[in-house]
Write a structure and sequence with these properties.
Length: about 450
């Protein structure tokens, strides 16, 4: 190696550019490509959804156990099974999303493994060439001849630098090989773990699909048994409609009374202010006029014709805060699910029969605590056949109604805070426990589901 260097020194000067070569670049480019395009949901999000679904399944099972305490099948059992089907389908969808994410990661990791293996082969080939070249100058005498054959001192320094760079390059190349081998081992380990997790998820998905099929079979059986009870279901529906009509009449009456009362109070307050201003202008301070309204002044026809609650500054703030929390109000019960939504719906069993719901029915466990969904004043507490005990709370010109309650822990006129317990849920004769929850704005009936927050 020394001789050629003496005759062609310029060719050896160009050699130091070789150590600057970087081989791991392809693996780095692949890492950047793999990092792009993550799955729509993170693993943590999917895990939270999985836990929430499992908790929901446990709650539905507990409610179903209560409704099945009665040997006779009921609509409450059907509602629970339907809700379990929805949750079970969410579980299966969650697993499918995880499997899709794993498939994507496995594909990306497999590509990384191939890229790393290719880079490792190139690094080893280049390292072999370096070792072969170094073996020719392994003798220290040859290296000394190469150095001292320089034509000048500057050329000697350049040749010395070249020898050092060549040695450093071999060391760096060996380090790159070791780093690539470690990375390859990590990628292969990760690939194995992902494949194991995929296998476990596939087994879980198979089990959940079997469970889903069992639930669908159970649903068909319940629907069939309920279909044989058509006469009883129609009688039950008629009783419910009568109870709903009685509740609607009660709510409308109490809202009209509150609107008229607020209109009367506003009219009397305005009259008192006008008389006080007139006395101030005439200089008759402290004297009382005969036409000044008294506290027992009767309502007028105009008061009863009012269409909305006249708000004081205090009640206006409550109403504004209530409206500002639309979509964020706490649920009136801590556990349960919506068994019947707001509006008109076909009957779950009876054909060509529509049912109308002024609020939402939340099916839960018997004795479940009922909580006020916002700060307000208890407007009325009463009982209606088919609706058990009813509590109506006023929030400015908004009203919330809680029906089908077993016990009540508040009183008329009492101020309540959000999430304060106002009573417990009653169970029907068939063992189904559900709360009827309504929201009103003046005399307008609203969809409560759009006011409640996510659980």
């Amino acid at each position: 190696m020394g001789a050629p260097a003496q005759h062609h020194p310029r060719r050896k000067k160009a050699a130091p550019a070789r150590p600057a070569k970087s081989r791991p670049a392809p693996a780095h480019r692949h890492k950047t490509r793999a990092a792009a395009g993550p799955p729509a949901k993170s693993k943590a999000q999917l895990e939270r959804e999985r836990r929430a679904n499992l908790q929901a399944i446990q709650e539905k099972s507990r409610v179903l156990d209560q409704t099945q305490a009665k040997k006779k099948v009921t609509l409450g059992q059907l509602n629970v099974i339907k809700e379990q089907l929805v949750v079970k389908q969410d579980v299966i969808q969650n697993i499918s999303t995880q499997l899709h994410g794993i498939d994507t990661n496995v594909h990306q990791t497999a590509q990384q493994v191939l890229q790393t293996q290719h880079s490792l082969a190139e690094l080893k080939d280049e390292y072999a060439r370096l070792l072969y070249t170094a073996s020719k100058t392994a003798n220290g005498f040859n290296q000394l001849m190469f150095l001292f054959a320089a034509d000048s001192f500057n050329q000697f320094v350049l040749r010395l630098r070249y020898v050092r760079q060549y040695t450093e390059e071999r060391q760096q190349q060996a380090a790159r090989i070791r780093g690539t081998q470690v990375r390859l081992h990590e990628q292969l380990t990760g690939l194995t773990q992902q494949q194991r997790r995929k296998g476990a998820l596939l087994n879980t998905q198979l089990s959940e699909n079997k469970s889903l099929l069992t639930l669908k079979t159970q649903q068909d059986e319940v629907v069939q048994q309920l279909g044989q009870q058509e006469q009883g279901l129609r009688a039950e529906l008629a009783e419910r409609q009568q109870a709903v009509e009685r509740l609607d009449h009660l709510i409308a009456e109490r809202v009209r009374e509150e609107i008229a009362r607020a209109a009367r109070e506003a009219r009397l307050a305005a009259r008192r202010e006008a008389l006080a201003a007139a006395r101030a202008r005439s200089g008759r301070r402290g004297t009382r006029s005969d036409d000044e309204p008294t506290a027992d002044a009767p309502e007028t026809a105009a008061d009863r014709r009012a269409s909305r609650v006249v708000l004081t500054p205090e009640t206006a703030l409550v109403a504004s805060n209530f409206a500002g929390n639309k979509g964020r109000l706490p649920w009136p019960v801590g556990r349960g699910f919506i068994s019947q939504r707001f509006g008109r719906h076909p009957h779950p069993v009876l054909r060509h029969v529509m049912v109308e719901n002024r609020g939402i029915d939340i099916q839960t466990g018997a004795g479940e605590p009922v909580r006020a969904c916002f700060d307000g004043k208890v407007l009325t507490i009463t009982s209606i056949a088919g609706m058990n005990t009813i509590v109506m709370i006023q929030h400015g010109d908004y009203f919330t109604v809680y029906a089908k309650m077993r016990s009540v822990s508040v009183s008329d006129g009492q101020r309540v805070r959000a999430r304060e317990v106002i009573g417990t849920v009653a169970a029907g004769s068939d063992g189904t426990a559900e709360l009827q929850f309504q929201v009103w704005h003046n005399a307008a009936n609203l969809n409560p589901e759009s006011w409640l927050g996510r659980r």
